[in-house]
Request: fold
Amino acid sequence: MIKRTEGVPEPTTIPRHVAIIMDGNGRWAQKRGLPRISGHKAGVETVRSAVEQSVRAGVQVLTLFAFSSENWRRPPKEVSLLMDLFMIALDREVRRLKRNDVRLRIIGDYTGFSDKLQSRIAEAQKSTCDCTGLTLQIAANYGGRWDLVQAARRLSEKVGSGLIRPEQITEESISSELSTAGVPDPDLFIRTGGEQRLSNFLLWQSAYAEFHFTDVLWPDFDAKEFDKALESFVNRQRRFGRTSEQTKLEDGS
Ligand code: IPE
Ligand code: IPE
Ligand code: MG
Reply:
């Protein structure tokens, strides 16, 4: 079982929720003259390391963007290989996750997946549902706009059936209908692979996230790079709309 490392900074300096756009697998493979899928396979190893690093550092929630609602636009062969890889990784990793007290949650529109994959997802979630350590959210067939649309639909159904009045729709009620309901918003949002865009990831939830963009390609994002991202977070002053002076007074710094 991975243990939280002694001597790591106090939890206040550790982001509670880290969200990562794991980008650059294809380029990593192409640089080596390998097919893109080799990059995705190498990326799965990095997922394992990111989970371990998160447990060690005392992060509570780790959300990884594995497949976006737009990624269906890729060549069918790559999409189908990605689906196979997802299924294999679920089968292989669930036992390890359980051992490390990691609760797995898949967020996204999984009605888009094959029946077989959907049932594997359900099994994997069920078998880790009592784990109380890190919450690992894998975003698969996820899009921030999709997330908001499905929340809007659920809320309008509640209004339609007279369960709530329109004025009772609040920021909190929207948050609680999103696929991430029940977990805090991301504090640190990392994107590997050199691009500086959101690509439709956690749009609502990242309103006040701190961003860390790195050119490092996802398969190369090792423990050292993870630490660099955590260190970059420690030095940020999160003002949430206040002035710098107010923030210092309220934080007692
Ligand atoms: C990210 O790596 C993984 C997925 C989107 C599934 P990419 O496949 O986007 O890698 P690049 O950006 O082409 O290098
Ligand atoms: C974002 O990466 C999605 C995932 C990492 C799963 P993409 O590589 O698909 O993003 P774009 O197309 O460059 O914006
Ligand atoms: Mg990419």
